[in-house]
Amino acid sequence: TSLTATSNIAGTFTFYANNRKIANCIQLVSATTTSICYWRPQQIGNNYLTVYISPSSTYAPATSTPFLNN
Prior knowledge:
The protein has strands spanning 2-6, 11-17, 20-21, 28-30, 34-38, 47-55, 62-63, 67-69.
């Protein structure tokens, strides 16, 4: 499964599933405003997904609103 995060600024993206970092999706550097994480759910059923974005400029870091994937 691919997860895509889009921001209005470039930076590093870290993807989370159920408040745990997704392996191979930690601090993905993006020179554009989009980052893609390839992920295989480790549990069947509901998964709460979030992404943390650390901008490469002077903007403050941000965490997305949780998204329920079921």
